[in-house]
Amino acid sequence: MLNLIIGMGVMVICLFVQALLVVLSIGFYARHRDPESGPSFFSTLGVISGVMLVLVMGNFIQIAIWAALFIQLDEFTDFYTAFYHSAVNFATLGYGDIVMSEEHRILGPLQSVNGVLMVGVSTAVMMSSLQDALRRIRESREGVEG
Question: Which residues cross the membrane (predicted)?
């Protein structure tokens, strides 16, 4: 039961990290889209790539948070191994080449659920940004043709 409480606490921390990165990525998108001139393919690609990088960095931060927990629980002795195991869980790959002790094993599935949810949020933000960018390109071209 303690592992579930710890895991849920880390999930809440990751939610706050994700929310912060969503705000930062939306702010990045809003600041870097070009409202005066019509958006070009390359400028749009650059802005969308920036949004993606901000969101991926957020996912890496969350993976690192879980890795730090695993080290704190004495599951791993080095950060590299803990980070690798954490990334496998977060991405729901489930290689199984490195496993945790029975005492803390439930944290793996909890982290996987957390990863699915947070990657889903990142995907939603990416799609929203991409849809807005495509809409702006279409409107810009319609304005030129009309």
Answer: 6-29, 41-71
